[in-house]
Structures are given as C-alpha cells and as structure tokens.
Design a protein that fits this description.
The chain is built from twelve helices and seven strands. The protein is of the alpha/beta class. Strands 1-2-3-7-4-6-5 form a seven-stranded mixed β-sheet, sandwiched between helices. A hairpin with a 2-residue loop joins strand 1 and strand 2 (about 215-225). The protein is elongated.
C-alpha cells in the first residue's frame, strides 16, 4: 500500500525534497524564461519600428517619384545615417557659435542632398522634403538604438537590462508612431502641432506685406493697437524653422524695442488638456538653443521685457498633424497678444515671434485660413487612428499582454 503522506509538503519527506528541488531549479531557470519572453516581445516591437522606418522611407521617396531607381533608394538609405557630432563644451565660452556653425553646415548638407535627388521640385516642396527626411532619420535612429540594446540583452541574458528596456517601450512606441505620422505630414506640407506659433503669426500679419530677411525667415511691419509691431516667422508654406533669433537680434539693435513676445507650442503635463493656453516670461523656443540664445542675449543687454504665450500639447502631438484642439486655441492666443500690446506703456516697437515649423502655413491670414479645412480633415483621421489604437491596446490587455 502506498503511503501518500510521503508526498505531502507539510511534512512528507519526498514532497519536501521535490519542493526544494523545484525551488532551486526555478531560481536558475525562471530568470532565463523571463529574459526569453522579454526578448521575444522586444523583437516584435523592433520589427514594428523597422516597418515604420521602411514606411517613412517610402513616403519620402514617393514625394520625389513614384518609380524610384535603385540608386535613389540607396542614396536615401545612406543619407538616413547622416549624423552631427556635438562640439566640445569643456570651455563653455563660444559654445553657441560652435553649435550654430554645425547647425548651418547640417542645413546646407540637407539642402544640397535634396536638390541633388529632387531637382524638379520647387523650393517649397524641397523644404517639405527636408523636414520629411528629418522625421525618417529620427525613426531610423530609434530603430537602430532599440535593436542595439536587444542585441546586448540577447548576448548577456541580462534580466535587469531587459526590464529597463521593456519599461521604456510604451514611450518609444508612442513617439515612433507620432514620428511616422509626422513624417507623412511634413513631407506633404500638412501643418503639425508645432506649427501653432506660425499660424498665430500669419493671422497677426493679416493682409500686410512681408519681407524676406533671409532665405528662411520673413518679417511684416504693421500697426496694432496704436503700436508699431514687427511680426517674425519662418518663411512658408514650405517646412522651415527660420533664423528667428538672428532676426530679432538685428531689429532690437537697430531701434528701440519695448517688448519681445514669443508664441510657441509647449509640452503639457499628463492631465492637462491639449490646446490649453499659458502666459509667462522668457523665450519659448525649443531646439538646440541657438535662436533662443540670440534673443535672450540682446534682451539682457537692452533690458527688453520678454513675454511668451504657449499652446500646450503632448510631445508626440507636436510632431503629428495638428489637432483641432490646437487650431481652436490659436485665435485665443492672438487675442491675448493683442491685449498685451494694448497694455504696453513703454515707448518703442514690439517684436512678435511666431515660433515653430511653418510647413503648410503661408505668410498671411489668407494662407493660414486655407489650411483650416485640411487641419480639420486630418484631425478626424487622427481621431480614428487613436480610437483604433485604444481598441488594440484593450484587446492585448484583455489577453494578458
């Protein structure tokens, strides 16, 4: 007769031995199982990111021609590996000039490449293509970095590194999806969230004439609320950022400036509404900081007040086609700026800077109004994408992934 008490874990000898054996086996096996499972999930995400990169390349290539040659495809693939090495900052003196020099060299290289592969496109479409290339380049870089860390995890079987990467993947996926949508928008000249400041500037310009102060920046002079106002924005409707810092510096040194006002998109916190508006002090310009440094420098020397208005949105919303909530906030910002001008008692002109990518946005109110229907249409498409994404996420959550 079999004695079943031998197999009981509360006192059976055989049961306790089996339990201890399983325990020690799992100590060594379970981490390996976890790493294997994580690697599988990470590789699925890496494949998705790689598909995003290929799609972004196709979007950029189709902008040039529907039947690209192998040589053109190879040229674009090679250019996506383009990089810029940051300057030495051990001695901070002169670092802004160094960065500015590298930025200008990078822009020249982009322009040269785009002209060489798309000579038949006009200057505005070439500018859009440059921005599209930047988006594809960012996606390519993200994909390479993710695959790099997956390779390290597979070699070392490092559970901790796998967990760190897995925890970051939701954010990486969100940014990558936004970059793909942004690449399509920038390539085709559709306004993105970051264009909020440019649209506000175009609406403030109204029917006034604009003057090109360089190849990428325009200025308009008009009277608003009894004040002489200079409105500065990147030249549209091609995708450009402009040399707005240099232009502000030039105007502020030539004449008496009572105030500098910047309008830009800004990252919101979770819980804040997209399209909410905030007013503050300082220079609302992102990027590497060169243009911002010019404005801050001249404002400090001349003791010029710096006011700023921001339209809040998520980081990924700034690089995606503009949402209707952002579009609806722009007239409110324009009114706030006009009220600010009417409150200004200091003598001198006022400089207003519409910061942001001006892709799809021309240099007047008419041009800004023309893209409203496109923004509304894209906003509906975005809403459909978001609803589908939420359904997919819910499905995976219900399955336990």
């Amino acid at each position: 007769m079999i004695n079943y008490q031998l197999f009981q874990t509360d006192g059976g000898i055989v049961g306790n031995i089996i339990w201890f054996l399983l325990f020690f086996v799992m100590i060594f096996v379970y981490p390996r199982l976890m790493v294997t499972q994580m690697i599988w999930k990470l590789e699925q995400t890496a494949n998705m990111l790689e598909n995003f990169t290929h799609t972004a390349r196709r979007i950029v290539t189709k902008k040039i021609t529907k039947n690209p040659s192998k040589e053109m495809r190879d040229s674009i693939n090679n250019f996506l590996e383009f990089f810029v090495i940051e300057p030495v900052s051990l001695d901070p003196y002169g670092i802004v000039k160094k960065i500015e020099h590298l930025v200008e060299l990078s822009e020249k290289r982009f322009k040269y490449f785009v002209k060489s592969i798309a000579p038949k496109l006009d200057s505005e479409n070439q500018a859009n293509l440059m921005m599209g290339l930047s988006g594809a380049m960012s996606l390519n870089q993200i994909t390479k970095i993710v695959k790099h860390y997956i390779g390290i995890i597979k070699k070392t079987k490092n559970l901790q590194l796998a967990m760190i990467l897995q925890m970051q993947m939701p954010f990486i996926e969100k940014v990558s999806k936004a970059l793909l949508k942004g690449t399509e928008a920038l390539t085709n000249g559709w306004p993105i969230g970051d264009a909020a400041g440019a649209i506000a500037a175009a609406q403030l310009i109204g029917d006034s004439k604009t003057k090109e102060v360089d190849t990428d920046t325009v200025v308009s002079s008009k009277r608003i609320k009894g004040k002489t106002v200079y409105i500065i924005k990147a030249k549209g409707p091609g995708g450009r950022l402009g040399k707005i810092g240099k232009v502000v510096d030039r105007y502020a040194r030539r004449q008496k400036v009572a105030k500098i006002i910047t309008i830009d998109a800004a990252a919101k916190l979770e819980g804040e509404k997209t399209g909410s508006i905030a007013e503050g002090i300082g220079v609302a310009i992102g990027g590497v900081g060169v243009e911002r440094a010019y404005i801050e420098g001249v404002a400090t020397q001349k003791d010029i007040p710096l006011d700023t208005y921001i339209i809040k949105m998520a980081n990924e919303e700034a690089i995606m086609p503009m949402k209707i909530e952002v579009l609806n906030a722009i007239p409110k910002v324009v009114k706030s700026v006009e009220d600010n001008i009417s409150r200004t008692k200091e003598k001198g002109s006022i400089v207003i800077v519409g910061v942001g990518n001006t892709g799809g946005i021309g240099n007047s109110r008419k041009d800004a109004d023309r893209v409203v229907d496109l923004i509304k249409k894209n906003s509906k498409i975005l809403k459909t994408w978001e609803d589908e994404e939420k359904k997919r996420e819910k499905k995976w959550f219900d399955l336990g992934f």
